[in-house]
Amino acid sequence: MYQQQLQIPSEKLKRAGRVLRTVLLTRAPHMVRDRKYHLRTYRKCMVGTEMVEWLLQQSPIVHSRNQAVGIWQALCEEGIIVHGNGMNECNSYQRVFL
Predict the structure, then answer these.
(1) 98 with 45: CB under 8 angstroms?
(2) In 3D, which of 56, 53, 45 has the Cα closest to residue 95?
(3) pTM above the 0.70 mark?
(4) Alpha-carbon span 22 to 38, nearest angstrom
(5) Residues 54-86: pLDDT tens digits?
(6) Structural contact between residues 75 and 81, judged by C-beta atoms closer than 8 angstroms
(7) Widest distance between CA atoms in the chain
(8) Among 37, 52, 58, 89, which is 20 to 30 Å from 68 by CA?
(9) 92 three-class SS
């Protein structure tokens, strides 16, 4: 039961993820698109480096790359965004689905 609770994102984090997704799709819809990588097509995904750079540019409260990566990592760990290989480890060089 404890393990199941860890897999369900908190309501606050879910809301924050939805707001972030809405802002991203409104301000930078070009970032989310189908991409090919190693002969495989990933649908509706973003590149981690672009996500980090975008968040640094958009948010006055995010002051470093590490902080931006940490925000995306938290969303990834909570299942709000999912890494292209299905793992919960998102870093700034990997692709993730929205």
Answers:
(1) yes
(2) 45
(3) yes
(4) 29
(5) 999 998 999 999 999 888 888 888 778 877 766
(6) yes
(7) 40
(8) 37
(9) coil
